[in-house]
Amino acid sequence: MHENNHSGEELLRIREMIIDDLSEVFHIGEELFTAEYSQSLYRTWDEYEITTLFNSDNELCIVAEQGERLLGFALGTTVKKHNSPWKYGYLVWLGVRRELQKLQVGERLFKEIVRRMKDQGVRMVIIDTSANNKPAINFFMKHGFDNIQEHVYMTLNLSRRHKKKAVKKHERAS
């Protein structure tokens, strides 16, 4: 059932992702999570990421649609740590088509996934993003996230030979 507004346009609807959405969600993510945008997200965005979350926590895999068109998605999971009374929600991916960003689609997806996490007993939601992704940081801060922790992300390309840097004598002595 689609809702219509007074001008006859179909309204945005948030719903649980179904198997027929997997391909389109993947392609939206491919457009968003590029190597130019973020090396780390580009490396981890793949079809297995979506199918794994869909198979393990499908109630936390949601999409925004208008008519027959998918506008964005949110994919999450929950984590229960051993010896901890707390259950954590992890918002793994939140993506909205570029041309539709700033139109409240991400906000609607975020609010719905948080509502679903609360229903599952989650007491804290965790997200991560690149330290230079200012729009995402601002979005999440606007929604109450704080306690920003920076972490170091490093890579080692095993297909290239690495030369060890020579240690100067005076550096060794200190």
From TrEMBL:
A Pfam family: Acetyltransf_1
Molecular function as annotated in GO: acyltransferase activity, transferring groups other than amino-acyl groups
Domain N-acetyltransferase: 12-159
Coiled coil regions in record: none
Database matches in SUPFAM superfamilies: Acyl-CoA N-acyltransferases (Nat) (SSF55729)
Keyword entries, A-Z: Acyltransferase, Transferase
Protein name (database record): N-acetyltransferase domain-containing protein
